[in-house]
Design a protein that fits this description.
Length: 161
Amino acid sequence: MADDAREPTYPAGAAPRRLRQPRVERAGWRRGLLAGGTEGNERLTVLTGLLLIVLLAVLGVTIIRIGQLLWLHLFLGLVLLGPVALKLGSTGYRFARYYTSDPAYREKSLDLSHQIQMEDAGICEQVQHGLASGAFDVGRFSVKRENAGYHFHKMLANCLK
């Protein structure tokens, strides 16, 4: 990537704040959710996910006292069917639209991918800066923190034997 195309890096704590998205008015909240498109799908998926987190947390609490809360546990199990189906539907719809080459969903995916890559580039630059400080020398993988890389290299070593 060309240097002029990269976003600037900032010292720790000096990065500019991200602009907040405009607040949706109460009357327009429902319209925004039902508007469709990538934004409506994203809102529906996020709100359904939040509802699922709350319901699953309550369901987890009922397991602690399953004897006294069996009725609530069973009721929540039935209530969860709707949000789970909605989450699968909204996520499946996004998946289908992306893989059928819908331009709006492709563009949204590329924007998110670019944002993640820029964040990763900043992290990698910080790691390289830390390595160049001389405080760390080459060492072993941390099995606790780098388990994916450790697993990959272990499999590679086994294949090369």
